[in-house]
Amino acid sequence: MRYWFLWGKGKVFGFSCGLKRGFNYQQSFSLVNVKLKWVKDKALDAVIAGERDLRAACNLVSILSSAPDFCLPIYHLSRHRGQLGLPQYLKLSTFIRRYPTIFHESYVFDSAGTLVPCFELTLEALNLYHEELGVIRDNMIDLIDRLCKLLMLTKDRILPLQTIDQLKWDLGLPYCYIDNLITNYADLFSLFRLPDDRIGLKLLSWDDTLAVSQLEKNVAQQTEEDLKNNCLAFPIGFTRGFGLKRKCMEWLKEWQKLPYTSPYADASHLDPRTDVSEKRIVGVFHELFHLTIQKKIERKNVSNLRKPLSLPQKFTKVFERHPGIFYISKMSDTQTVVLREAYDCQRIIQRHPLVDIRERFASMMRKGFRDRSRGLYKKTAYIGHKDPLKIVQGHKGGGNGLDSEVDSDDDLFSEYNSDESIHCPS
């Protein structure tokens, strides 16, 4: 169980830290002088486990859903590899074959007599994808508001599409959000070429009704005095079993009482060396995480936000300096930052409908991965030589495996060392 509170309203568990001798609360003091240690949170790590494979699989589902007959050869799918976030050592075909409940493999001869693996969606996966499209349609206004608020956080209401692409999974945007969303709201968004020759997205109008942060919406949790002084406090929680030293607790209590600057307000007047500025940076990310549907983002995906959000150098250090607000998971060889207050152990408190769809995809993947490991998806394909363009079907099925897997020896193409096409023996 984890405790969430505003200072004076709950029980404290946390981290140890040390303060420089002669510390004075009235001085301009930064948490850079506080030594914090990373503490593993197994519950939040479990939230991240399998996220990489799930995201890659869902992106492949979106790509295949727009293809003729929902089927594409491996060399076409490989063109999208950079958008999948898979490790370089993992062959794309190996990854796809792990999940036979999602992807069905077939083969085709091209005009040169070369055998090419093709992949298509299983009926179960296609049906779930159509359900996802229905959820997106039903929640379109919510998705538009999230994108508007993201652009309103920036100085000029502009972001490069490259930066938005890195956040679209977290925001719940459709894979092809430009065609399926942006073009339908020409009154809100405009595409144009940036000075560095990239394409950017601009919000055309400011909406005051959206410029209210989640922390400001939670005013019912704040004291009357804090509201009067605009000293809004962030919900704080720590992993059970780690004590918080008295001096560090006192500093954090004082930091919570500092003035809160809305992430939608101009903060150019703030001295970046002060704790008030630090609190503003925390507030920006607190709001950004609330714009995501699962309240988590890979750390590397916010690296391009420094200039658009008017942040100082090394701004992502706030994740390490405020472990009571953010947790950094190191699962899957990457760092994923989670907003602590959004979770009760492994359960997300406010569930977006898209989360249910993703969990059903993950369940399908786990089932297929287990079944395939048990040998239930051995292939018995027959290759036709008369028609060099004939697609030959194998065993249809699906699957999820949120762990690594080595192809079994009885896999039809386990000996192939490339995602490229192969020559069929005569």
From TrEMBL:
InterPro entries: PORR_domain (IPR021099), PORR_fam (IPR045040). It comes from the Eukaryota. GO terms for molecular function: RNA binding. Residues 39-369 form the PORR domain. It holds the Pfam family PORR. PANTHER family: EMB|CAB68190.1, PROTEIN WHAT'S THIS FACTOR 1 HOMOLOG, CHLOROPLASTIC. This is PORR domain-containing protein. It comes from Gossypium stocksii.
